[in-house]
Amino acid sequence: MSLEQTTCEDLKAFERRLTEVITCLRPGTIRWRIVLVVVSICTAIGAWQWINDPLTSTSQVSFIDSLLNHLFFTLSLLILGLLFLTGIHKRVVAPSIITQRTRVVLADFNMSCDETGKLILRPRPANS
Asked: What is the distance between the alpha carbons of residues 53 and 69, in angstroms, rounded to a whole number?
C-alpha cells in the first residue's frame, strides 16, 4: 500500500467514526432539549400564575408563604435550577461542542468538518 492510500483510508475511518459519534449523540440531545423546553414552559406558566395572584400583588403574604402557595412554580423552578446545575446546558449542545472542537484540531491539518461530521478538505496554501 502506498502512503496516499493509507492516508486516504485513515481519513475515511476518522470521518466514519466522527459521523458515528455525532449521530449517536443526536437522540440524547433531542430528549434533553424536550425536557428543557417542558420544564421551562412549566416554570413560565407557574410564574405567570404567581404574578397574577391577587394576594401576591397586594403584599399581604410574605415571600416564602407566597412561594409555598404556588408549589407548581416553586417545584418547576427548583427542577430547572437542578437541571442547569447538573449540566443540561452542555447536553443540549453536545454535538455542536464536539464539531467545534474537532474543527479547531482539524484546522492545523488544513481541514474542517460540517455539522454531521463529514470532513471538508481545503485546498493547500500556495507556496510563496
From this structure: 10
